[in-house]
Amino acid sequence: MRVRPRPPQRAWQGAQLRLQDRNAIQRPKIEGHPLSAQTASPGIVLENVSFAVAGNPILSGLTAHLTEQRIGILGRNGSGKTTLLRLLAGLVGPTSGRIRLNGIDPAADRKAALNAIGILFQNPDHQIIFPTVEEELAFGLRQKGHSAPAARALALLALAEHGREHWASASVHSLSQGQRHFLCLLSVLIMSPQTILLDEPFSGLDLPTQTRLTRLLSTLPQRLVTITHDPAMVEGYDRVLWLADGRIHRDGPAAEVAAEFRAEMARLGDADADADHPV
Ligand SMILES: Nc1ncnc2c1ncn2[C@@H]1O[C@H](COP(=O)(O)OP(=O)(O)OP(=O)(O)O)[C@@H](O)[C@H]1O
Q1: Residue nearest (by alpha carbon) to ligand 1 atom 9
Q2: Does the Cβ of 29 fall within 6 Å of ligand 1?
Q3: Ligand 1: does its nearest atom lie under 6 Å from the Cβ of 48?
Q4: In the chain, where are the structural domains located?
């Protein structure tokens, strides 16, 4: 659960991400299956990355080269996870240091970043911008150059593959929070990005939906970067960065880091520690 007020620019950041570069997007012809991935990639490079707001450091000196397919960013509330995700997505640039995703500077090369990166925000209402399911799914495809009928056909195909063809003309407001979340995931997958950034992907979802999504996510060929405060979410991953107080506290094999994190959280819980403790 979030314990801090969110900065104002966070609201509608998904819509902004999708709308602000509307005119900058190329219109290449997309071929192949809508849910297929693009080519594998050299990875994510963070070189001494720092980010500050009005002089207050939020992230400090992050350095890592991430080439694994399943990467977890683990940390307590306020540790800087979402800020790191926003930097990786290029929604903001670092105050100092260098970020590259598959060779792209995501804050500088918006056009390339929009094609290469998909983001699933924690709150689907920060992401959905169209009134119906079909329009929501078709939007990105239209931006990528598909004709309206082709985008519609691909949207219907994606829904049918998940047994949701009856959602096509539904108003997004008629869907539950979990269903809207699932729609957002489909909107990301239909674009076939190389890298998918997931912000607390199971937040607000019931257990069957979590199980279904876990299964779906585990089959994806893309690189996934998942941010979470829940070690169970990432312990089967390849690598986990543990963020604490805006720094990388620990970086290593997922099972190891998740176990250490879990033990430390249990220790803090037993000590009835304050939620703003740096670790
Ligand atoms: N634009 C901003 N202006 C001021 N402070 C900010 C801004 N963005 C983030 N912060 C602060 O930076 C810290 C890290 O925030 P961030 O949202 O990245 O944490 P988080 O690990 O994702 O937390 P949570 O798990 O609660 O979502 C928090 O103390 C937050 O209040």
Answers
A1: 83
A2: no
A3: no
A4: 69-91+106-131+171-270
- CA atoms in the 13 A half-sphere facing the CB of 94: 23
Average pLDDT over residues 121-140: 89
Distance 201 CA to ligand 1 centre (A): 18
CA 80–ligand 1 middle distance (angstroms)? 5
CATH number of 69-91+106-131+171-270: 3.40.50.300
Asked whether 4 lines ligand 1 (CB < 6 A), one says yes
- Upper half-sphere CA count for residue 258 (Cβ side, 13 Å): 20
Q: Indicate the pTM of the whole model.
A: 0.80
Residue 36 has pLDDT above 70, yes or no: no
Pairwise pLDDT comparison (33 vs 74), residue with the higher score: 74
Give per-residue pLDDT as tens, 249-263. Answer: 999 999 999 999 999
Q: What is the ipTM of this complex?
A: 0.96
**What DSSP assignment string belongs to 2-27?**
--SPPPGGGTTHHHHHHHHTGGG---
Higher pLDDT, 127 or 233: 233
Largest CA distance in the chain: 60
Residue 172 alpha carbon to ligand 1 centre in Å: 29
